[in-house]
Please model this.
Amino acid sequence: MASSSSSSSSAAAVGRLSNISNHLSPTGSNPLLKVSAEVSEALSSGLPVVALESTIISHGMPFPQNLETAKDVEAIVRESGAVPATIAILDGLPCIGLNLEQLERLARLGKNAQKTARRDIAYVVATKRNGATTVSATMFFAAMVGIPVFVTGGTGGVHRHGEHTMDISSDLTELGRTPVAVVSAGVKSILDIPRTLEYLETQGVCVAAYKTYEFPAFFTQTSGCKAPCRVDSPEECARLIDANRKLNLGNGVLIAVPIPKEHSASGSLIESAIQQALAEAREKNITGNAETPFLLARVNEITGGASLASNIALVKNNAAIGAKISVALAQLRSNKGALY
Model:
C-alpha cells in the first residue's frame, strides 16, 4: 500500500512539472497568439529575448513621448544584444513582438486601449478589442511563449490603505505563480512598499536588489526597506533565474534596479506630490485600475514634469540591464544545454 501511494504521489508530481514545462514551451502554433517572425526565430535559436509591456505606452505617458520612449527602449534592448518583444492585444489577437506600425497604433490609441491585466485577457480577446498589457498579462504571455526575462518600469503592489480596501495589484499574485523574471525599479512609490514586500514574501517570490542592499522606490534609489537579497551583475541574476527555473519553484523573480542617481527625483518632493494626488483620488473616488494612471499623471503635473523624466530614465536603464541579464541567461543555457 505504501509503495502504491508513493508511486501515485510521484506520478502527480511529474504531472505538475510537465504542466509547468508545457506552460513555458514556445507555442508559435497557437492560433490565439501571433508571435513575430523575429521573436519566433530568436526563441527557436536560443537567442536572448526580452519581453516588454505595453501599458506604459498607452497609459504611462502622452503621445508622441510614449512612441519615442517605446522605440528608444527597444533600441536599447537591441544594442545590449537581445531581441525586444513588446506585447499587446490588437483586435483581439495577443501579439508577441510589435512592428513599428503596431507600436505607433498603440501609442496613438493611448487610453482608448483597454488596460489589460490577467483577469481581462479572455474578455479582450473574445470581444476583439485592443488591450495594453500590464505586468501580470505581460508575464502570462511571456511565459506562454518561453520568454524568461521581462523588463518594466515598476511593478504594482499593495496600495496605501490596502489593509482597508484590499486593493492589491495582480502583478504580485502573478509573480507568485508565473516563472518569469521581472526587472523593474522596484514598485511604484505611490504604493505601500513595506506591505508589498510582505505580500511578495507570502507569495514565495524571490526579491533581489541590484547592486544594493536596499529595495528601491521607483523614482528614488531608497525606500527605507531592506531587500531580501542582493545581486551584483547580470551573470548573478542569470544564475538566480536559472536556479529558480531548475528547481521548478513555479514562481517569478523580481530584480529591483535603482534608478540612476543622476535621474533620481527628490524623495521629499515626490512624497509630497504623492500625498496630494492620493487625497485628490479619494475626493474623486478614483479606485481600482484607474487609480495608478491617475496618481502617476497627477504626480507628474505637480512636480512640473520631473517625475515623467525620471520614469523614462529608469525604464531605459532597466531595459539595458534586463537585456544584459537575458544575454547572460542565454549564454548559461547554451553552456549547460536546455534548462527548461
